[in-house]
Amino acid sequence: MEKNWWKEAVVYQIYPRSFMDSNGDGIGDIKGIISKLDYLKELGVDVVWLSPVYQSPNDDNGYDISDYRKIMDEFGTMDDWDEMLKEMHDRGIKLVMDLVVNHSSDEHAWFAESRQSKDNPYRDYYIWRPGKDGKEPNNWESVFSGSAWKYDEATDEYFLHLFSKKQPDLNWENPNLRNEIYEMMKFWLDKGIDGFRMDVINFISKEEGLPDADNPEGKPFAPGGQHFMNGPRIHEFLKEMNKEVLSHYDVMTVGEMPGVSPDEGILYTDAEENELNMVFQFEHMDLDTEPGKSKWHVKPLDLRDLKHSLSRWQKGMQGKGWNSLYWNNHDQPRIVSRFGDDRSYRVESAKMLATCLHMMQGTPYIYQGEEFGMTNVRFDSIQQYKDIETHNMYKERVIENKEDPAEVMNSIYIKGRDNARTPIQWDDSKNGGFTEGTPWIEVNPNYKEINAKAALEDSASIFHYYKNLINLRKNHEIIVYGSYELILEEDPEIFAFIREYNGEKLLVAANFSGNNPEFRLPEGFELKEPELLVANYEGQHEGTYEGFTMRPWEARVYKF
Ligand code: NOJ
């Protein structure tokens, strides 16, 4: 397998609005990020993925961009950004920017032109269609609830928006639009950035004719994913982007891709295909959702589903493509609350989850606050939530469909995106040290106990454990490049696997429960000279790699 820096890197995601506020307006900003770079250096991460900092009216917190070459006022200036990049590079940290080009903001100058008239030169930068029998052009549903079409009086047509009404989809069929995007990418790359994370990039090619989605339940709208996920021209577009732009720079690219399979993952990430380096896939994020239903219909996780899913990706990509590894991002609930136990075993389960993920093959991503075990939040009132997806869903289900508000709030507690977006809890001072002003979204009340300062001061903290995992990766090539084999496939509580590389082996055993299951190594493994490489309990370790009683949420990694 070819060695690359981005395979060996650990990435840290910053969601700027919630990271650190430097000027007391309650909103995180670029100067705030600069003030925390030593903290990231201490953690040992190699790359920062920065969620959007471009000019935006903030309908979807920056994922609705009105000028791709300007910095959002609330976050600072281009000079601040230049300084941030320099300060990162001075510390040996690379910067990956977010590229949001499936859609723009409706306040982008292109859209202002596009909606003027049907013969405006920018008309075809977006996807416009006449209505059908006085209704929307098709039955597609927006990811953020309701129809994916909005009627625009000026030209008596509808435009497509797979996300909010203020996020019109760009028309990638138009070569002029594609060229504008490539030029914009070069603008940032020439400023010295080290790559892009590409927002829902497998949505950019829509099926010709935009056919209706299957709708067996006869609902007003239906998810149209089959007609725009991994669409007919997607590989052609990405190959073109690679040829025109990416191939001229030594950068890392990761495509966010809902609804992708390992086989497709290979097509996107096989070096010979000349498209992207890795994808974010979502299979493991959907396992606590009722099959076929929206993410809000939650069900408990069956560990066997998680093992089988992640293993399918590990095996499927092995030697052909490249995985990214993540438990969290700004759209997902906090992992310690989701697959761990944030009450009785917060520290143990957070460390166990980190061990399991960081010992797999792929590039690990840490989402801000994960490194010291931040948890989900439970606000009493829907008004305390800020996320557009959450509000649209609440409106549809509680106000329009008259569903039980308590039940809907419960699904927000479990799945809402604001779980990940409460401000970073830096210390135990007011607002967790995030801002001197009033935070744009309330701080999780547990900041007095759970915060970065406390974690830094405690050598047994989750923070120091992550630091150790990152360090191990730097010193053991097997963690990066080793092959992967799941063992104990059907065990409902233990996730265990074996890695192998150049005659070395690793055994990873992780207990995903608060119980005491017996770990037994299956027969037939030639393992010699064990060394306990890392474990989430301190002190004496009873038993051996061949068999031991696992403590609640215990994780051990043996090296042979
Ligand atoms: C995926 C992003 O991660 C999410 O935050 C955003 O709302 C949508 N794409 C639309 O840009």
UniProtKB/TrEMBL annotation:
Alphabetic keyword roster: Glycosidase, Hydrolase
* Record's keyword annotation contains ATP-binding: no
Q: Which InterPro entries does the record match to this protein?
A: GH (IPR017853), GH13_cat_dom (IPR006047), Glyco_hydro_b (IPR013780), O16G_dom_2 (IPR045857), SusG-like_C (IPR056300)
What residues does the Glycosyl hydrolase family 13 catalytic domain cover? 13-421
Q: Which domain of life is it from?
A: Bacteria
Entry's transmembrane regions:
none
Q: Does the keyword Hydrolase apply?
A: yes
Matching SUPFAM superfamilies: (Trans)glycosidases, Glycosyl hydrolase domain
Q: Supply the EC number(s).
A: 3.2.1.10
**NCBIfam families for the chain:** PRK10933.1
Q: Give the protein's recorded name.
A: oligo-1,6-glucosidase
Lineage of producing organism: Bacteria, Bacillati, Bacillota, Bacilli, Bacillales
